[in-house]
Amino acid sequence: MRTAASPAPESVLVVDDEPALRALLAFVVQRTGAVPVVAADAASARQLAARHTFACALIDKNMPGESGLEFLKWLRTEQPGCNAVIVTAYGNVDSAVEALRLGAFDYLLKPFEVDALEHRLKLALEQYRMRQEREHMQAMLVQSDRLASLGLLAAGVVHEVNTPLAYILSNLDWLDEELPSLRRSVAPQEALTLGKRLEAVETTLRDIREGAERVRDIARDVKAFARDSDDGSILVDLREVLDAALKMALVHIRYRARVVRDYQEVPLVLANEPRLAQVFLNLVVNAAQAIPEDGGEHEIRVRLWTGPKGEACAEVSDTGMGIAPEHMAHLFEPFFTTKPRGEGTGLGLFICKSIVEAFDGAITVSSLRGEGTSFRLTLPPHVRESAAPAAASLEAVAIAAS
Ligand SMILES: Nc1ncnc2c1ncn2[C@@H]1O[C@H](COP(=O)(O)OP(=O)(O)OP(=O)(O)O)[C@@H](O)[C@H]1O
Ligand SMILES: [Mg+2]
């Protein structure tokens, strides 16, 4: 089954030695939409809590062996974020005070109404979610600070790179003009030897120009991002943007996979072209990086089509290693990376999401470990008509051979 990035339901630990009550408590947990994880005593509950994180716990106060309150004390140090509700038949004010003093979120007397327990558990879950949300917001604030500094840094680096780059490109222009006249001035008796050497020089210069122009394009994209402007929105044909991104990613794809383009009719979208190109470039580079360089038959497939509501849809899929289910929820977070230090910043997908959402679009992912990954993008159409009346095309291009 494919895993999709949606928030997983919270788990609630149920600890009770009475089988019937355990089943009832588990039933109430299910009614709140959470997942019950049951234990018949504190010892097995400890083992479970060592492996899983729980949003809440329903703990019987009186159990043979370690008591519910002792277990509560341990749980508070192990999982301080877990909201514990103590359930007991032997309740009195003192034991309630003791439970609350030990950090219980709530205290409930048996026999209890199922509705009452459900209500209390919902409150405990709600408080857990609010605390999670607050912690997430705080982390985002710290990250947005880091991103702002990164933006400044990127703008500075681009500025520094652009000056020598302009010098390199203008010198290449001069060489382009100079070489033909040099070739013409070669004496006929040297034409064979010198002519061949000049040809090799010209080929090398073409490669240098290609590299320098790629650096210039990357610098322009980084500058557009660092400036964080969404000016320059125009009607964009996604086919052109995808083709441009594939061209830029060629060096990453070349020895890993063949590219299959499946372009159906797709509406034009109102967006900033370089920024959309950056989205596709990040997705294609990620796809290539997920494919091992083992000479296997791998594929990166790019698709474009019109969605059921007329929206523009795009997909980049690969036959790479796939994504671990526990990573799915974190992919779009800034600085989340599984790549070795120095190889990935973990900003690629975060940037993709920010750009797509700035154009009122959405991005989703599905993946199967060992089989591959698909990133899907939807963008609102600018016009209902298709970009061009071209027939649907399915074209396989062996990039390595091109
Ligand atoms: N196509 C894919 N297949 C498998 N894993 C992927 C794929 N795309 C993204 N990932 C996972 O998502 C993580 C985050 O991706 P993201 O593009 O944000 O950062 P990165 O690629 O690690 O770093 P950077 O983009 O800065 O080079 C990656 O480290 C990788 O674990
Ligand atoms: Mg990336």
From TrEMBL:
The modification 4-aspartylphosphate is found at D60. Residues 11-125 form the Response regulatory domain. Pfam families: HATPase_c, Response_reg. SMART domains: HATPase_c, REC. The keyword Phosphoprotein applies. Keywords: Kinase, Phosphoprotein, Transferase. It is an enzyme of class 2 (transferase). Residues 156-383 form the Histidine kinase domain. It catalyses: ATP + protein L-histidine = ADP + protein N-phospho-L-histidine. CDD domains: HisKA. InterPro entries: CheY-like_superfamily, HATPase_C_sf, HATPase_dom, His_kinase_dom, HisK_dim/P_dom, HisK_dim/P_sf, Sig_transdc_His_kin-like_C, Sig_transdc_resp-reg_receiver. Transmembrane segments: none annotated. GO terms for molecular function: phosphorelay sensor kinase activity. Its EC number is 2.7.13.3. This is histidine kinase. It comes from Melittangium boletus DSM 14713.
